[in-house]
Amino acid sequence: MCTLEKRGDLFFLTLTGDGEHRLGPAVIDSILSALSEAAAQSTPGSVLITTSQGKFFSNGFDLAWAQTAGSPAEARERLHGMVASFRPVVAALLSLPMPTIAAVQGHAAASGLLLALSHDYILLRSDRGLLYMPELDIGLPMPDYFSAMGRAKIASSSAMRDIFLQSAKLKGEEAVRMGVAYSAHDGEEALSEASIRLGEQLAKRKWQGKVYAEIRKSLYPDVCSMLGLPHKVATPKL
């Protein structure tokens, strides 16, 4: 599950507990509810920081829950349901009226990596943070919006190849060099301090949230179209 806390201009969305933060139906609903609450409370200068407790940022969909279904067909139906229900989370982050920061202090794998990529900035722990898209390794096809997000957020074709076609496991400094992460930091405290510092720097700009969201969506037209997010031209304040 997750919690949402507001401290000044900063919203902190925290995946709670010491587990793998698997994205099953209840966790997905909890994240979506927190994002909706943050959007409703946003003001000029708001910033979202998403982080987690324990070793993992998120280890992806709850495959163990899917496999407890009564038959292979029912297991596939559960997996497809998680893929479908996670789309609105990605859409909510791309349309959130504020800058977003993912403070990845542990493993972010599969849909957990997509959760991180859906933020404007990814900050990693250099000693424990890990970005990993394991679909090839576990024999699962790639959902269409996963690939679209990769194309939108990862500029280097060689980085795309390594992440999606080699299932490379990227640690902090390597992820920064490849342009996937914004920065890497030694230890949980340093990561937290860097995330808050960046959040406060962004908050000082006091940007209009709706304008920020529309500009963000304009940068990623393909994935936004796939997610059904309309792009509106904001009326400037003169």
Summarize the structure.
With 238 residues, this protein is of the alpha/beta class.
Describe the overall structure.
The chain is of the alpha/beta class and 238 residues long. The protein has helices at residues 25-41, 63-67, 72-94, 111-117, 135-138, 144-153, 157-165, 172-177, 188-203, 209-219, 221-226, and strands at 2-7, 10-15, 47-52, 56-58, 100-104, 107-109, 121-125, 130-132, 169-171, 183-185. The radius of gyration is 17 Å and the shape is globular. The model has no long low-confidence stretch (mean pLDDT 94).
Question: Layout of helices and strands, plus pairs?
Answer:
Layout: E1 2-7, E2 10-15, H1 25-41, E3 47-52, E4 56-58, H2 63-67, H3 72-94, E5 100-104, E6 107-109, H4 111-117, E7 121-125, E8 130-132, H5 135-138, H6 144-153, H7 157-165, E9 169-171, H8 172-177, E10 183-185, H9 188-203, H10 209-219, H11 221-226
Parallel strand pairs: 2-3, 3-5, 4-6, 5-7, 6-8, 7-10
Antiparallel strand pairs: 1-2, 8-9
Helix pairs in contact: 1-3
In total, the number of strands is 10
SS content category:
alpha/beta
Order of helices and strands: EEHEEHHEEHEEHHHEHEHHH
Distance between the termini: 43 Å
| Overall CATH class | Alpha Beta
**Rg result:** 17 Å
Low-confidence stretches: none
Instruction: Specify the oligomeric state.
Output: single chain
Number of continuous helical runs: 11
Helix content: 40-55%
Question: Can you summarize the main beta sheet?
Answer: 6 strands, mixed
Q: What is the assigned CATH homologous superfamily? A: 2-enoyl-CoA Hydratase, Chain A, domain 1
Shape: globular
Count of discrete structural domains: 1
What's the arrangement of strands in the largest beta sheet? 1-2-3-5-7-10
Mean pLDDT over the full residue set: 94
